[in-house]
Structure formats: structure tokens, C-alpha cells
Amino acid sequence: MATACARLYRLLAATFDGETETIAAALDRGAFATVADVFPIDIETTDLCGDGHDADSLAIGYDNLFVVPGTHYVPPFASAHAADPSEAFESDSRYHTAGEAGELLGDPAADMAQLYAAAGFSPERGDDIPDHIAACFEFMRALCEREAALLEADGNGSNLDAVRELQVWTLSRLGWIDRFEETVASRDTVEGVFAAIARLARTFTAWDAQEVAHADRQMSETTPS
What is the pTM of this model? Predict the structure, then answer.
């Protein structure tokens, strides 16, 4: 299961980092639709199929949604969707206004940077924005790969407990994806591909949060004090 989750997080990280050839290939082989069919929540899969979606058209859609400011733009990082201002966060960035919510590199970015540092992880995705959705998914991919390796090695121990604790903390900070998904759905009204993938990502992270928390509780109950 950990390996399967790592693969999906890898695909989602690539998707929201703009790897449109990877997205097109995944749509063509039905990878997104197959995952959507597994979840108990009904997810419309029409827009997750490959017909009519090539890398070039996906690149235009991706840029309009996540790169170029405009009527369809949706910031792909947590700080933009924060409800509370990051008053204590100091920055000389022109995108940061102290005391206002929604700035670039706000408290959510600082929180994610701390998690990366605790895990000895340096994200390669997300344009050096720690709370970029692609960087968050890349981090979860790495944690799931660590979990899979530890389970294959011995199946328990303090190292596995530490990895799952990091997963719990990370997933608890991804609640902003709900607001992100809703905004993407309202603005990706022509093709709908990214709206459908965002819905899938929201459903998957919510499910994974429950699964990881359950596994963490089970380990705590079975570990001798």
C-alpha cells in the first residue's frame, strides 16, 4: 500500500508541477480514472480519460490556471488559501503584506519548510515555494517510499514510527487542498481536466490522512511501553 501511495503522490506532484507529457500519458492509459474508481466517494471520471488531451493543450491549460495571473489563475500554494494572516512572518518579498492572509511565503510555507528540515528533505518541485502543492506531494511521495522500505526491512521500530508521524503532521497541513480544489473547479470550466485531478487529489489526501492515522494508532497500541 505504501508503494502504491508513493506512486500516486509522484504522479500528482508531476501533475501540479506542470509535467504535461506525464499528465497526457497518465490520462491516455487511464491511470487517474483507475484510481478514482477505487474510492468509495463517487468521482466523475469523464474528464480523467485521455481523449483529446495532448501535452501541448494541457500546457496551455496548466499555465492559465497555475502560472499566469488572470481570471482563471489559482495559486498552487497553501499560503494563498490561508484564512488567517501570517503576522509574525517577516519577508521582504513584494508578495507579502504583513497582517494580510493570502500572501506568498506565509506561515504555511514556514511550517512545510520545518517539516522538510526535520526529515532531511529538499524538494525539487514547486519553484522553491515550500507550500507549493507539487512540493507537498513530492514530500509525501518520499515519506511513503521510506515507509515501504522500512516495512520491507522489519515492519516496525522507531524509524517507522517517526516516518508515520511526519506523514500525520504533513497531511494535517493539507486541509487547504479543499479550498484549492473548489477554486480550480470554478475556474477550469472549459476542459475540466485539472478540476477532475484536483478533486481526485483532495479525495486521496483525505483518505490517506485517515489511513495513516489509523496505522499510527495501531502501532502505538502494539508497541511495548
Answer: 0.88
The answer, yes or no, to whether residue 45 has pLDDT greater than 60, is yes
Between CA 8 and CA 150 the distance in angstroms is 19
Domain ranges of the chain: 2-222
- Alpha-carbon distance of 190 to 142, in angstroms, equals 34
- Which pLDDT does position 218 carry in this prediction? 67
Q: What is the largest distance, in Å, between two alpha-carbon atoms of the chain? A: 57
pLDDT tens, residue by residue, 76-85? 999 888 766 5
Q: Which residues contact 117 (CB under 8 A, 6 or more apart)?
A: none
What are 185's three cell numbers?
Answer: 473547479
Measured torsion, CA atoms of residues 31, 168, 185, 134, in degrees rounded to the nearest 10: -70
- What's the mean pLDDT when you consider all of the chain? 86
At the second CATH level, the architecture of 2-222 is Orthogonal Bundle (1.10)
In the chain, where does DSSP find H-type helix?
Answer: 2-16, 20-28, 31-38, 55-66, 107-119, 133-153, 158-172, 177-187, 193-222
Q: How many residues does the chain have?
A: 225
Grid cell listed for 162: 517517526
